[in-house]
Amino acid sequence: MRETVAEESITKLSVNDIKPNMVLARDVIIDNGKVVLARDTMLNSVNYSRLVSCGVEDVYVISDSIREETGAFTKSDQEATSLQRQKIPVVDRPEFIEFKDVLDTKTEEAKKCIRVISDGGQKDLHEMFAITDDIMSTLRFKNELLTFLGFIKQSDEHTFHHCVNVSLLCNLYGQWLALSSDELVQLTTAGLLHDIGKTKIPNEILNKKGKLTDEEFAIIKKHPILGYRILQNQNIPECIKLGALMHHERIDGSGYPVGLKGNKIDKVAKIISICDIYDAMTANRVYRSKICPFEVIKTFETRVYGELDTYYLLVFLKNIASTYVGSWVKLSNGLEAEVVFINNAQLSRPIVRTADEIFIDLSREKDISIDFLV
């Protein structure tokens, strides 16, 4: 899994030549020293429009993220970032409706696949990957997944929906890193199978509405070991099996089932941990009209630093934050403003610009916060 980018793996492109879902290899910095977009950011219509409006001429992208078959940014992509377009409810947008329909169908496929493996059957690695890949293929801008998942109504079979969601997030994360095809297949499939051990937990405990007793929680905490045992004899890479075993381990040793620390935790498991927590934070919120990604970032900043791998966590948070550069938000003081710059030292509190051209640095104006996206 990549942590540094070799110079020979970087391509310099004119802004006129960049395409959706390319990944930045270097920070984009303008004359006043402000970071417009951070390294590892995946390009979408919102941050593309920001690059154009800031007068950026060239960017450096990870060569492996260049897909010849992807169409260039269009005029309609730029129009999609307008305030009027952003105010169309997510659930009414054609791209969301298509995504939801495919997600529902593929979640049923995933459920059958997970049950077959849980019962001792074998499944082909690429067949499992295709479940997630088919869903991701509906998205022109892959980062839209972060918004769309928050508007999906969960059914009572939460475990299977969660497995699919984590697989989708792992796939997106792998594209941020511009992983090789084989690595992307492995990470995506590991996300799909990470909670397979829960199929061996009694439903009355797994789906209990109230608070779990200590004894019930102890049973739940067995699912990583149960999952590893299920996958032990599958013809799949070891990292997928370790993803099931280690996704609740924490680098400070506070996790379970073993209490592993630091580099003793598999890299795939470290990424799954982040995606697992993100989905747990944002799931089961039935068809909201407003979502505030910056509140999600704040929770990660304040609650899990020191528990999750810093490098992998920052890649995740920077991409969430940079996805919304150019988006309009409602502030706690009642004003609407555009997110114009991300503060790398405090990702949850960007610099915003009001309609009256007043800039507010939320990292300094502590009494003002972002309530929701407009």
What is the residue-mean pLDDT, rounded to a whole number?
A: 91
The arrangement of helices and strands along the chain is EEEHEHHHHHHHHHHHHHHEEEEE
CATH-defined architecture of the largest domain: Orthogonal Bundle
Work out the helix count. Answer: 15
Spans of at least 5 consecutive residues with low confidence: none
Regarding CATH, which class of the largest domain?
Mainly Alpha
Shape: globular
Structure description:
It is a single chain. The protein is of the alpha+beta class and 374 residues long. The protein has 2 domains: 7-86, Alpha-Beta Complex (Molybdopterin biosynthesis moea protein, domain 2); 90-290, Orthogonal Bundle (Hypothetical protein af1432), CATH 1.10.3210. 43% of the residues lie in helices and 10% in strands. It contains 15 helices and 9 strands. It has helices at 45-53, 75-79, 83-86, 94-118, 125-136, 144-148, 158-176, 181-193, 203-206, 214-220, 223-231, 238-246, 267-282, 293-303, 310-323; strands at residues 10-14, 28-29, 35-37, 58-62, 328-331, 336-341, 351-354, 359-361, 370-373. The strands form 3 sheets. Strands 8-7-6-5-9 form a 5-stranded antiparallel beta sheet. A two-stranded antiparallel ribbon has the order 1-4. A two-stranded antiparallel ribbon has the order 2-3. A hairpin with a 5-residue loop joins strand 2 (28-29) and strand 3 (35-37). Helix 7 (158-176) runs antiparallel to helix 8, helix 7 (158-176) crosses helix 13 (267-282) and helix 8 (181-193) runs parallel beside helix 12 (238-246). The model has no long low-confidence stretch (mean pLDDT 91).
